[in-house]
Amino acid sequence: MLEDKNERYGIAIFSRYPLEVVKAGFLTRAVPARFQEARGAIWVKIERGGQGAIHFINTHFGLGKKERVEQLKALAGDIWLGAIPEEEPVILCGDFNTGPKSRIFRMLTGLHDAQLHLEGHKPRATFFSTNPILRLDHVFMSKHFTVKSVDVPTTPTARVASDHLPLCVELEIAPHGNEN
Length: 180
Description:
By secondary structure, the protein is of the alpha+beta class. It is about 15% helix and about 30% strand. The protein has helices at about 65-75, 105, 155-160; strands spanning about 20-30, 40-45, 55-60, 90-95, 110-115, 135-140, 145-150, 170-175. It has a six-stranded mixed β-sheet with strand order 1-2-3-4-6-5. Strands 7-8 form a two-stranded antiparallel sheet. Strand 3, helix 1 and strand 4 form a beta-alpha-beta unit. It is globular and about 50 Å long.
């Protein structure tokens, strides 16, 4: 997706449905003097066979508070989320490196935390994978979706694959034109 010449990892989106990359780019650049890595996002439109597209954005925010605010401002701006019409469904997910009581959450308007929209579900932490105590990974959705299930697998493979556990959210979209 994106590559900083000094880094060998990134973010990706896989889909069994046809998708079109709308945008892939940096939200902020690396600032080596501050030990900040370049951080970005990828935005695709997933085609649903004549039922309209879903906008899907995956991101990975930085570790510093100010850095994350800059990244959210860029992501919420006119060339990312701000370019998507309100009537079109959106999913935003990734490692936000911040919890649900943060400024980032308060700034993110128009999208809902999927873990808070499943009746009877207690939100689950994803970090550290060996002993999850923080909820840093999130799935946000527009009003077009209903949450069907949320899972945070804790298999031995999930625990060693990353320092974060996976956050798996099953969403259902309202039939075209029948959103709330």
